Amino acid sequence: MFQEIAYQLRVVWACAKKDFRAALTDRLFTILSLFVPVNVLILMSLFVLAGANAPTAVVMGDQGPYAQAFYQAMSQAHSFRLQIASAAEAERLITAGQIVAVVTIPADFDAKVQQNQPVQVGVKINNLNTDFTNDIRRAIPLSITSFYAKAFPNLVNVSVQEHDLYAHDTGYVPYLGVSILVIALMMGGLLQSGTAAAKEWENQTIKELLLSPASRWAITVGKMLGSFIVSLGSTVIVLLVLIVFVGVVPINWGEMFGFTLLSLVIFNTAGTLLGTVIKIRQPVIALSMGISLPLFFLSGAFAPISFTTPLLQVIARIFPIYYQIVVLQHAFHGFALNTLSLGGNTLILIGYALVLIILVTVALQRTSVSH
Amino acid sequence: MNTNVAAIEMVHLVKRFGNFTAVDNLSLTVEPGEIFGLLGPNGSGKTTTVNMISGLSAPTSGEVRVMGYALGTHTRQVRRLLGSVPQETALYEELSAWTNLDFHADLFGIPGREKKARIEAMLDLVGLTERKDSRVSDYSGGMKRRLALARALLHDPQLVYLDEPTLGVDVQSRRAIWDYILALRQQGKTVLITTNYMEEAQELCSRIAIIDHGKMVALDTPTELKQHFGGSVLEIETIRSFEDLDQLRTIPGVQAAEQMGNSLKITTKAGENVVPQIINMVALCCEIREISMREPNLDEVFLHLTGTALRD
After folding, report:
1. Angle at B26 between CA B22 and CA B27, to 5 degrees
2. A211 to B92: CB separation less than 8 angstroms, yes or no
């Protein structure tokens, strides 16, 4: 019994070692695998940064205190990237497509506000992008309300009494950064393990494995371990970029490491299953890329999934990515994104890992070699 | 393991892929210590049969036993007893020869203390010691075959299966591989070969089974097969083309007659002495330059039995 266990563990280690060595010899692919997840991270971060605030020029026709207060209200609206410009400069910028809007504070702004007379703030919008256009349309009235609430508190009778669930706000980038970590792990894991498994079939070396007396699960676990070790490389790089360069620091490091490793296990197992079933590297690569993005968007990447429609919530809960985002958001920000406890979410993820390992073993068991 | 049992025993073996029957009710026994050849045209069911013997493919019906162990219930024991050299070698080409053998040793549970010595011995046997650290992708076809053979023998199997062992290798390497295979018999190992080379089958095999369309069409020693097939082959070279081939075919005892330019090849039936009659008929028509007589080779046996050349 002990001998048998020792033998199977030896097979696990031999398969892992062999795959790791093989990956190192395939330098180009290994480099690609290491940097694809980082690329995704950078790409998504750029997407987020580019879409965060609308570049807007403000023409200060009036320099009075109310005009300055209005400018302050706009700068605190979290929607604009403001710059003060002359009318001519602002016109040039919007014509050149470098800004989304020009807000013109008229020369008689302070006077009219003091006299309680209507005053028109001119807004010129480059409305070729609905997202930015709507941001401007929402943020200008918000700025006006905010300006009045501060300048004339007695005139605004309705006020907000806010109670926050969390001690601090979480920015769009820190929230999305964690989701991007999950997709980066997913792509890295699927690509690495999927191609390692498919390569055995493409090169017919699967016969060497299947003709051995080793158990299928030992071969499966060994192959996954090999890919896991290689994927660790890209994971470290992604975490470094996220923590050091993007500045998203986990509040619970232990959870972050634990859930990252658990996620890698799941994605490596899923990749091994994909490679074992498809048996050709090219479609495995295409599929790994193809399924990662939709699942990423589906699983609450931008906001908690509970904020979306009931149907999407049901679909999202089928896939492990949803639970991975939940537990990693907890590790980084301390959020509880669903009604399950952290332990409950972890158990579900462990369940996914076990089911996938069983599926890969069955797929190898049922396989027959054609000629 | 019971040493008195057959090395391989197939009983009414059938393998179907949908409506296509790849192996059709095949029964045969391979004795321990013999080199057994499985011959057949491409697609005849050889590799499917061997895949079932090695447990890579489950039979639709029938039974396979290797050294007394039934496939299906004792597959892992069978795999320990079996060393395989697949046609495509199945070597990890990005790794070195040593790493390939080291990995195989781990897969087959060769004890750590014996591993190094065994790998060295196998590399020495196939003459690859000096290239042990080279990537397999840098090897020639012959070297890869030799390495695959070394790998198959590393765990000291009782039954060695070689699928087209000399396919695509140069003449020198072919001879070397044949010598290794013949040496296996000296060690008491059973060898199962599939090959497309008749010369190879004749040189190595103690018995041959010819398979066509998944069925066994002949099973015997190479000598018996040749004797069973026909009496002799008469080859006559004439000064000019012989014009009455059909009449030649009407001679009782002539099994087949064919002509290529000024050369005639006439196969006679066993036990029929019709050679004088043939020579007389040819001499009447044209002057004979050269006559030779020989026993049929395995290619001709194969052609006769399957109606196709082996390489078709």
Report:
1. 165
2. no
Domain boundary among B222, B257, B280: B222
Domain count, chain B: 2
- Shared domain for B72 and B150, answered yes or no, is yes
Whether the per-residue pLDDT at A355 is higher than 80: the answer is yes
The boundaries of the domain holding residue B291 are 231-295
| Residue B131 sits in the same domain as residue B280 | no
CB B132 within 8 A of CB B96: yes
Using a CB-CB cut-off of 8 Å, the residues of chain B touching A218 are none
Are B205 and B235 members of one domain? no
Same domain, B41 and B174: yes
- Residue A61 pLDDT > 90: yes
State the CB neighbour count (10 A cutoff) for residue A158. Answer: 6
ipTM of the complex: 0.78
Tell me how many domains chain A contains: 2
Q: Is residue A162 part of a domain?
A: no
CATH for B265: 3.30.70.1340
pTM, two decimal places: 0.76
Pairwise CA distance, residues B33 & B7, whole Å: 8
Q: Tokens representing A31?
A: 């480099």
Same domain, residue pair B191 and B237: no
Q: Which domain holds residue A204?
A: 11-47+169-366
- Tell me whether residues A11 and B80 touch, CB distance under 8 A: no
Query: Is residue A112 packed enough to be buried (19+ CB in 10 Å), middle (13-18) or exposed (0-12)?
Result: middle
The answer to whether B104 contacts A205, with C-beta atoms less than 8 Å apart, is no
CA of B184 vs chain A CAs: smallest distance (Å): 20
Which of B23, B95, B103, B151 best probes binding to A when mutated, by most A CB atoms within 10 angstroms? B103
Q: Which of B87, B292, B296 is nearest to B202 (CA)?
A: B296
Report pLDDT for B297: 72
Q: Tell me which chain A residues have a C-beta less than 8 angstroms from the C-beta of B156.
A: none
- On whether residue A160 sits in a domain, the answer given is no
Q: Is B44 among the domain residues? A: yes
Amino acid occupying residue A360: V
Q: Is residue B310 part of a domain?
A: no
Interface of A with B in 351-370 (CB under 8 A): 368-369
Residues 6+ apart with CB under 8 A from A350: A262
Judge if A37 and A76 occupy the same domain: no
Point out the domain boundary residue: B189, B222, B255.
Answer: B222
Parallel, antiparallel or unpaired: strands B190-195 and B159-163: parallel
- Reported in sequence order, the residue ranges of chain A that DSSP labels E, i.e. its strands, are 54-60, 80-84, 101-105, 122-125
The pLDDT tens digits along chain B (312 residues) read: 555 789 999 999 999 998 899 999 999 999 999 999 998 888 888 888 988 998 888 899 999 999 999 988 888 899 999 999 988 889 999 999 999 999 999 999 999 899 999 999 999 988 899 999 999 999 988 899 899 999 999 999 999 999 888 887 788 888 888 998 999 988 889 999 998 787 888 889 999 998 888 899 889 898 888 777 666 888 888 888 887 888 888 888 888 888 888 888 888 876 667 888 888 888 888 888 888 887 777 777 777 777 665 544
Please tell me whether residues B289 and B194 are part of one structural domain.
Answer: no
pLDDT at A368 over 70: no
